Amino acid sequence: MKALDAFIKLTRAGESVSARLHGRLSEYELTVSQFGALDALYHLGPLPQGELAKKILRSSGNLTMVVDNLEKRGLVKRERLEADRRSNTVRLTEKGKTLFKRILPGHVQAIVGEMGALTGNEQEQLGRLCRRLGLKKRE
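The chain above was modelled as a monomer; its predicted structure follows.
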């Protein structure tokens, strides 16, 4: 079955590339989810904790643990929203910004290296196909 074969190849390729890229994060004592949170906060600015969970495709329960651990290291800070005291906004601290800026160039270079297995046209085609697959609506 073509669909199953393509799915298995997509999944294995994604997991293989991710494992190689994310293994580098352990040098900084970061998990993939922690790096994703730092990335989102760096590029998007402070976010409500629920919105941050959606941005990095994590459950709210998982994100609570991620933010707890980042906060313990002084990389992020939670702030209660005045309008809704049940909600928190999460923001990067200066220490978090500094760490992210130190990690990002090497991470981008590693991504470029991994994607170098494909030509520029193949990378564009892969991007279009992945976007189309990711945006497919349930039937």
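Strands lie at 47-48, 76-80, 88-92.
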